[in-house]
Amino acid sequence: LKLCHTLGLSQTTGAGLVEAEKVRQYRDTRGISLPLMKKLLDLPGTADVKGLRDTFLLRLAFENGLRRMEISALDVSDLQLRERRLQIRGKGRGTQKEFVDVSPRLIAAARAYLKASGHRSGPLFRNVSPNTAGRGAEGRLTPDGVYYVVSYYGRQLGLTLSPHRLRHTAITQAAKEVNGDLMALLEFSRHKDIKTAQIYVDNVQAAQRKITNKLSRKV
């Protein structure tokens, strides 16, 4: 109905005709364990440009919890090596960019990748495969390309892995590090709604499971 209304074929968008079901998002936010994450980061290796690129990409996805669209959109000029920060185009912010700080280990991975690739401008992550699938303008690694990279290494560990699952991993571990500090977690995750950050905290604290176990021991 929304499409028909846009095309002038309907007098209504359908709004209010059917009551929408309220769905709680991100119920399962566990991601993967830190030992598995370490194994994942070790998989690409550093023998060639692709390995260096993928090591950099996977570490960025985990350490900063970036979405695949945000990773794909990065340009070399967005990476400020001396200041150890990135400019990213966050979800729902149009062309407006925001700064995120990155770790010394990530900067080292970025330097190694850029030195091997030799490019100083344009897309930060480029498709280095001869296959044109997943290649955007200027050879940019597309969001689907980012998904393929993550899922490829996940399969090597027997995992069904996606960039968003890595984001779940990052935010879940962050929730543990900040001891449930919602505002700190909100700053890290860059969620617009504090209720979403609360879900991660609730899942980490596992209050329901703890209460259930206590009740079980009473009878």
In summary, what is this structure?
This protein has helices at residues 2-6, 34-42, 49-63, 68-72, 104-117, 143-156, 163-177, 182-189, 194-205, 207-217; strands spanning 79-80, 85-88, 98-101.
Question: Please, could you describe this protein's structure?
Answer:
By secondary structure, the protein is mostly helical. It is 49% helix and 5% strand. It has helices at residues 2-6, 34-42, 49-63, 68-72, 104-117, 143-156, 163-177, 182-189, 194-205, 207-217, and strands at 79-80, 85-88, 98-101. The chain has a 3-stranded antiparallel sheet, with no helix packed on it. Strand 1 and strand 2 (85-88) form a beta hairpin. The longest helix is centred in the first third of the chain and has 15 residues, at 49-63. It is globular, with a radius of gyration of 20 Å.
Give a quick set of tags describing it:
single chain; 219 residues; mainly alpha; three-stranded antiparallel sheet; 10 helices
Structural class call reads: mainly alpha
Low-confidence stretches: none
Binned, the helix content reads 40-55%
Question: If helices are DSSP runs of H or I spanning 4 or more residues, what is the number of helices?
Answer: 10
Annotate the secondary structure layout.
Blueprint: H1 2-6, H2 34-42, H3 49-63, H4 68-72, E1 79-80, E2 85-88, E3 98-101, H5 104-117, H6 143-156, H7 163-177, H8 182-189, H9 194-205, H10 207-217
Antiparallel strand pairs: 1-2, 2-3
Helix pairs in contact: 2-3, 3-5, 3-7, 7-9, 8-9
